[in-house]
Amino acid sequence: MNINPIQLFDAESSTFTYILAAPGSAEAVIIDPVDRHWERDLRHLERLGLKLAFVLETHAHADHVTSAGKLREITGAKAAVPSGCCITPAEMQLNDGDVLKFGNGERIEILHTPGHTAGSMSYVWRGNVFTGDTLLIDGCGRTDFQGGSADALYDSVTRKLFALADDTRMWPGHDYKGQSVSTIGWEKRHNSRLADRGREAFVELMGHLNLPKPKLIDVAVQANQKLGLPHGG
Ligand SMILES: [Fe+2]
After folding, report:
1. What is the pLDDT of residues 30-50, one digit of tens each?
2. Angle at Cα 37 formed by Cα 172 and Cα 136, nearest 5°?
3. What is the CA radius of gyration of the chain?
4. What is the pTM (predicted TM-score) of this model?
5. How remote is the CA of residue 52 from the centroid of ligand 1, in Å?
6. Ligand 1 center to residue 24 CA distance, Å?
7. CB neighbours of 110 closer than 8 A, spacing ≥ 6?
8. Which of 11, 58, 169, 170 has the least CB density, counted as fewest CB within 10 Å?
9. Could you give the CA distance from residue 63 to residue 161 in angstroms, rounded to a whole number?
10. CA of 179 to the centre of ligand 1 (A)
11. Mean pLDDT across 125-147
12. What is the pLDDT of residues 61-110, one digit of tens each?
């Protein structure tokens, strides 16, 4: 059965947070929670009678600080993070091909999708893929810092994400244009950065975006490598 996640939004950084839960168990997983919304997120879990089993990060973010450490402290959930992101206080370091189990037989498949950052992961669950900043709706994450690579992102998207079933619902880490969900098939056909663009043209395009440095990068990445807590929890 396909189940949608609960999608929550931080208007300041345009970040999506997701809560995953399925019938048959009260266990839930949260992906990419944002520091200033920890109370909101706990209220959602409480309202739905859910108990947090895992806090997942798709990467060490440069534009906002996670509440992973805080949520872990309060709920007793375990932090599960990409192994290549130097998020050292987490209980679980995830690698490509791992499966994270929760609830009543729920399985989250771990896909290493480097390019936005070297460690970035995407998570696949019940016909949904959570792509972090690797693939956005009609776009993709920038590739010019944190070990980013346009070449690697091209491979991650075209070989791994676009290899998923066309009807896989695609839930991005951010959206700046008011959209919230897409599908793999739609992005394959219509993503203006990646659809029908060869590797060389994509790398060229990504090399000339001239984006400003993220305002929070110097503080946010370091904080996120400690799960958002000064001492790492
Ligand atoms: Fe990011």
Report:
1. 999 999 999 999 999 999 999
2. 10
3. 17
4. 0.97
5. 24
6. 33
7. 94, 95, 96, 97, 98, 99, 100, 121, 123
8. 11
9. 24
10. 18
11. 97
12. 999 999 999 999 999 999 999 999 999 999 999 999 999 999 999 999 99
